[in-house]
Amino acid sequence: MEPARITIFDTTLRDGEQSPGCSMNVPEKLRMAHQLDRLGVDVIEAGFPIASEGDFAAVQAIAAVIRRPIIAGLARACRPDIERAWQALQDASRPRIHVFLATSDIHLKYKLRISRQQCLEQARDAVRLAKSLCQDVEFSPEDATRTDLEFLLQIVQAVVEAGATTVNIPDTVGYSMPAEFGELIQTIRQRVPGIEKVTISAHCHNDLGLAVANSLSAVAAGARQVECTINGIGERAGNASLEEIVMAARVRPDRYVYKTEVVSEQLFPVSQMLSEITGVPVQPNKAIIGRNAFAHEAGIHQDGMLKNPLTYEIMTPRSVGVPDSTLVLGKHSGRHALNLRCEQLGFQFERRELDEIYRKFVVLADKIKHVEDHHLMELIRETHGGRRIPPAPVADLPLAIAAAAGSGRDYPQKPLSFPLPAEFSPSGLPLNPMAEHHSEQEDYLWGV
Ligand SMILES: [Zn+2]
Fold first, then answer.
1. Separation in Å, CA 158 to CA 127, 141, 149, 188, 195
2. Which are the contacts of 258, defined by CB distance < 8 A and separation ≥ 6?
3. Can you give the pTM of this predicted structure?
4. How far apart are the C-alpha atoms of 347 and 269, rounded to whole Å?
């Protein structure tokens, strides 16, 4: 059976960025957008252009340079918002206007103070206006899961008739249960005439910890777009986490016959970059990209891992881009290789900053021959203080055997914990015997 293709709609820069402590400026959003492009997401929701000058500028800047994915701009269901969004998207190669309007009675009564009939007309008019500007129009009935079902079906039908190409069903308040949310998607598919012409999307919040489960249930029921964020950031408890959705499909194709175009090896670098930019750490036990996601501390687990990583691992660290901790840099490594390694660890430096690290790196490499990730992290910390240290440095992984799983070579000994104990300061570091093992990857780095 051919797996169904799921559109990954990333809203890290919009819904994610709205969450406390996660705001980003324009250059930071642009950096993230480049990384999301490398990750292979299908849609980047770049911001909410009417919300602020900064949001407008970010959407405009991203639309101008990121050419492959669709770039979406959010708008409330009113003319000024839609026109502003369209203005910001002018340079996009594949623009999308994303219009939303709350539809639940509680929102209509207390927030919008409009009747259901007014809501229906406003949604229809807004989609018509957006469609007159842009071919690709998404509509979201905000708080859909607490909206009266019959009314929700009317709204969806109205916006489909008005030209929406994607209908997104948000569980705005994270209230739904997986089976219930799947049934809702199913009902919409069965009862709305013309729905087969549009893509149904799921947008789930994590207030009950069910955002990913609800999204997967929606996909099983026929949704073909999932809205999600890196590290699951977003309003309150966050959005569905992109990395979890992607890896569910990758690890369980037997039960979950869907595919995405996401390059899973980019998941860890993009997660690290986001943490570094926002300063918001990833919880250590976070699935897929948390510091402990591939750590095996218990003796019996370590023993099993050494015999065969599959005893306790359902995916390799490398498959999600957790760098191989045994990968070493030596004094022959160039500045470019060093920079690449820093990037793999989630750091990006200006030229001058990199120069400074490079000078110290050369001195260190001369002394200890092979510079491993944890040495490099120490160097970065020494050079640039705590400022740029991402919260989940890979050297913190308690066991490097995890990082080597699937690499097809010997497992190294447990790496030094970080920060390094005094006797292992970079200046006096003993040579790790495993560092003598050269690998293809190492040669690659040396050759850059
Ligand atoms: Zn949301």
1. 9, 11, 14, 13, 11
2. 3, 4, 5, 6, 219, 249
3. 0.75
4. 9
Residue 418: C-alpha distances to residues 18, 75, 169, 284, 386 (Å): 33, 46, 44, 15, 14
- Which pLDDT tens digit goes with each residue over 5-60? 999 999 999 999 988 899 999 999 999 999 999 999 999 999 999 999 999 999 99
Residue 204 CA to ligand 1 center (angstroms) comes to: 7
CA–CA gap between residue 220 and residue 185 (Å, rounded):
9
Which residues fall within 8 angstroms of residue 10, CB to CB, at 6 or more apart?
36, 39, 41, 43, 44, 45, 227, 228, 229, 230, 242
* Residue 16 alpha carbon to ligand 1 centre in Å: 8
C-alpha 109 – ligand 1 centre gap (Å)? 20
Residue 308 CB neighbours (<10 A) = 10
Burial of 58 (0-12, 13-18, 19+ CB in 10 A): buried
Longest pairwise C-alpha distance within the chain: 75
96 — phi, psi (to 5°)? -140, 130
Please report, for residues 56, 82, 218, the alpha-carbon distance to residue 74 in angstroms, rounded to integers and kept in the order given.
10, 8, 22
Interval between CA 102 and ligand 1 midpoint (Å): 12
Lowest-confidence segment of 82-86, 139-143, 195-199, 365-369 by average pLDDT: 365-369
Of the candidates 273, 265, 201, the residue with the CA atom closest to the CA atom of residue 230: 273
Residues 55, 28 contacting (CB under 8 angstroms): no
Parallel, antiparallel or unpaired: strands 7-10 and 43-47: parallel
Pair 28, 283: CB distance under 8 Å: no
Ligand 1 centre to CA of 83 (Å) is 22
Say if CB 375 and CB 429 are below 8 A apart: yes
How far is the centre of ligand 1, averaged over its atoms, from the C-alpha of 15 (Å)?
Answer: 5
- Output the CA 408–ligand 1 centroid distance in Å: 42
Distance 76 CA to ligand 1 centre (A): 13
Expressed in angstroms and rounded, the spacing between residue 239 Cα and the centre of ligand 1 is: 7
Residue 46 CA to chain centroid, in angstroms?
13
Return the CA Rg of the chain: 24
